[in-house]
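Batch manifest line 261
LIGAND: copper (II) ion
JOB: complex structure
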Amino acid sequence: MSILELFGLPENYSQHGEQVDQMNSVIHWLMLVLFVGWTIFFFVTLFKFWHKRNPKPSYSGVKNHVSTHLEIGVVIVEAVFLLGFAFPLWAERTDTFERVVANDPEAPRVRVIGQQYSWIYHYPGNDGVFGRTDNALISADNAVGIDPDDVNGHDDFISTTALKLPAGRNCILQLTSKDVIHNFAIVPLRIQQDCIPGKEIPMWFNPVKEMETSVICAQLCGEAHANMKGSLEVINAAEYAKWATSRSEEELAKKKAMALN
Ligand SMILES: [Cu+2]
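JOB STATUS: finished
ARTIFACT:
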């Protein structure tokens, strides 16, 4: 059993998750070593400077420069860690959004809109383009304010029950919020991102296999924050394509029928 499972972290389902887990694990072991080391130092100090062993205090204090040299040494070692290891590792392990999009221009995209206290998912439909949205257009029948005059939005569809995504693809979520700051956190995929009103922030990951999980809001956002749970279903890619196509066609037919009336 890994140290992370011991702390109750669920199984990983994303391509990048193993690297997050490795980092998490290294940090936990390092903290354990520091904890044990400083605890030993504490007791050694208590014993060494115990008043019964040193009945007469030293009035002159330390004369040599060992501590100065030690401190310079610590600065050098930390600089090597930061510049030689941390920065290059960060550059290697993070992927820029441009690179992700260039590698897979067809990557499925979903807009995720947080609101007190639920999540709404806006799919671009079969044309792959999101319709223009405007908060002023939000109403009971238009949960995310899609502009009815924008043709790109006619085949867009909304899901308020679950976020469905295909397994084994790079998925891009574009996160925003209608009211306050929320945070879309998917622990089994080892990813989370703040949803900020007025901004649309991309988040991307590759769910490696089919799964069902809950998504939680990880930013204290009001009195019912604890109830702000969504559900995520990662399904077979072919099944996903079939579902998304039919939902989009349904939506387009509905719009056409409305236009005829
Ligand atoms: Cu919240």
